[in-house]
Specification:
binds flavin-adenine dinucleotide, Vanillyl-alcohol Oxidase, Chain A, domain 3, Oxid_FAD_bind_N, globular, alpha+beta, Uridine Diphospho-n-acetylenolpyruvylglucosamine Reductase, domain 2, eight-stranded antiparallel beta sheet, 3 domains
């Protein structure tokens, strides 16, 4: 077991209202150029919002002297903790309609302080919203309604240390508030990695990943945060507990599984022992073009059902391929990638490309295996990768042009996928036209693939009704949820339930399970202060 050095934090300024760093936001010219691609958007971008324009009331509670040093009522901090980072949040900031802003933001540094804050909140009818990186896209970190006297945002990011690394057992004891880069930087000296890279990696935390059952960007194999959990420490209003560190256990229902995905409604995750991996040393990537998207789906299914296990197997439809620069001729593109810490992967890549060719894919001969530190192979592959990281910034630029942008993801079995994807394109497209009077762009990519199905991710962009973008988004979201439900596709594959997916989640979960969840809430959170409205009422 070894001790871990401290890690410096980024000096760049994070946006309080939009994605990422302020210095990476598209400027007015870039926003206008994007808006010009969508008929009906504004002539010029909405101004960058100012905190001074928000309706920020004075806090209605004061913490006791013993906890006062942990909490702030600074309007800038409170505004930055009022919402997550969905389109809906960004447009509400732009339109100065943030909803209820927390009265206080607390930054506990140890478990005792978390427990004391929960006890104080329970006694004073203060709702507590656990907050990691604040990258929720489902209304997970905001408070809706007025049932509580006050709202406390419980920011865990001061608890961001890797406490211990067990190199022999390839696992690490990590505090829940560590942001992705902070966590990986502390593991790097050990040659190990958690290898969990959601698109939001830079601005989301271990605790947030665990509380939402996040999905990393690897297409197959171990990519869900669930796969890496060895043990969890959770603090609830009814007491704290830590599960045993075990490689596996068949002792009844799993306590870790119980808290995974609990979204701050059942307790606060403060620490976890996580399984690690060696850093990959071999990589190989290639892209395959398809004229027919449905043939491409068949190719992906064949690859997913083989034993090749690609790290990346991302099928982009023609719109998505065009937008990311992976193709300009109307083809769908399959981006394939392999990596390994132990041996060359070029043969696996070649076999996957052969399978794709057998389903009418067009591919160059794949490049040979290369050192993992080398630059990406293939222009379509690298074009897609850069676009992937830039996408959230562009979404905010489109929001400034008054566009409505909704991204939603799901998963379904192979027998249902083609009809589901077609229905989203046609039915949601028609609904968006009816709601806004403008044609929508709807793109699709597969983010994760399984032997028995896959996870499609949709992006819908359409000009909004100026000033009513939130209502338009809500209407489009409701139609999308209805289509998913009708096709027996999950309301979310990795974005969580939060408040925005409640209707779909309530329909999806079996009633005895809902009963058990309500009973668990009653037992663990008797004053109903933990993230009210998330997962259940
Ligand atoms: C641009 C963008 C890209 C994204 N890409 C992905 C992706 O690739 N894969 C993916 O899975 N998701 C993705 N997301 C969604 C989001 O990043 C994930 O849900 C992430 O896991 C949230 O982590 P966070 O630390 O930001 O949590 P927050 O947003 O702060 O919180 C999310 C939920 O977890 C609860 N919570 C947070 N910390 C704790 C804790 N310590 N204990 C108990 N409850 C807690 C909160 O109360 C809330 O309900 C993306 C979001 C954006 C904006």
């Amino acid at each position: 077991m070894s001790a871990i050095p401290a890690v410096p934090r980024s000096a760049r300024t994070r946006s309080w209202w939009g994605w990422g760093y302020t210095d990476a936001h598209p400027d007015d010219v870039e926003c206008a150029a994007m808006g010009a691609l969508l008929p009906g958007t504004l002539a010029r971008p909405l101004p960058i919002p100012r905190i001074a324009d928000l309706p920020i009331a004075r806090p209605t509670v004061t913490p006791p002297p013993s906890l006062a040093h942990l909490a702030t009522a600074d309007p800038r901090v409170r505004a930055a903790h009022a919402m997550g980072k969905a389109y809906r949040d960004v447009i509400r900031a732009l339109r100065a309609r943030p909803g209820r802003i927390p009265d206080l933001v607390a930054h506990p540094t140890v478990d005792r302080e978390v427990a004391d804050l929960l006890a104080w909140a329970g006694e004073h009818d203060v709702a507590v919203v656990p907050y990691g990186g604040g990258s929720s896209v489902v209304g997970g970190v905001e408070y809706r309604g007025d049932a509580h006297r006050a709202v406390l945002s419980l920011d865990l990011t001061s608890m961001d240390r890797v406490l211990e690394v067990d190199t022999a057992g390839r696992s690490a004891h990590i505090q829940a508030g560590a942001l992705g880069p902070v966590l990986e930087e502390q593991l790097r000296p050990h040659g190990l990695t958690l290898r969990h890279f959601p698109q939001s990696f830079e601005f989301s935390t271990l605790g947030g990943w665990l509380a939402t059952r996040a999905g990393g960007h690897y297409a197959t194999g171990r990519t869900h945060i669930d796969d890496f959990v060895q043990s969890l420490r959770v603090i609830t209003p009814a007491g704290a507990g830590t599960s045993w560190r075990l490689p596996a256990s068949g002792a009844g229902p799993s306590p870790d599984r119980f808290f995974l995905g609990s979204e701050g409604a059942l307790g606060v995750i403060t620490e976890a022992w996580m399984r690690l991996q060696e850093r990959p040393r071999h990589k190989a990537a290639a892209s395959v073009a398809f004229t027919d998207f449905h043939r491409a789906l068949d190719a992906v299914r064949a690859i997913a059902q083989s034993d090749l296990a690609p790290a990346n197997c991302r099928l982009l439809d023609a719109g998505e391929a065009l937008f990311s620069g992976a193709s300009r001729d109307g083809s769908s593109v399959l981006v394939l990638g392999f990596e390994s810490a132990t041996g060359p992967v070029g043969d696996r890549l070649a076999s996957a490309v052969d399978l794709a060719r057998a389903h009418s894919g067009r591919a160059e001969t794949p490049p040979a295996d290369r050192d993992a530190s080398a630059d990406s192979a293939g222009s379509a592959v690298s074009a897609w990768r850069s676009a992937f990281l830039r996408m959230p910034y562009l979404r905010d630029g489109l929001a400034r042009m008054g566009a409505v942008v909704e991204t939603f993801e799901t998963a379904a079995t192979w027998d249902k996928l083609p009809a589901l994807i077609d229905a989203v394109r046609t039915e949601l497209g028609a609904a968006a036209l009816k709601i806004t009077g403008h044609p929508a762009t709807i793109n699709c990519r597969l983010t994760h693939v399984y032997p028995d199905g896959a996870a499609p991710y949709f992006t819908v962009a359409v000009a909004g009704r100026p000033g009513d973008e939130v209502e338009v988004w809500d209407d489009i979201k409701a139609v999308a949820g209805e289509i998913l439900h009708r096709h027996r596709a999950t309301i979310t594959h990795h974005h969580a339930v939060g408040r925005d997916h409640r209707a779909g989640y309530d329909l999806q979960r079996p009633e005895p399970f809902a009963l058990a969840l309500r009973a668990a809430k009653d037992a663990l959170d008797p004053h109903r202060i933990l993230n009210p409205g998330v997962l259940l009422d």
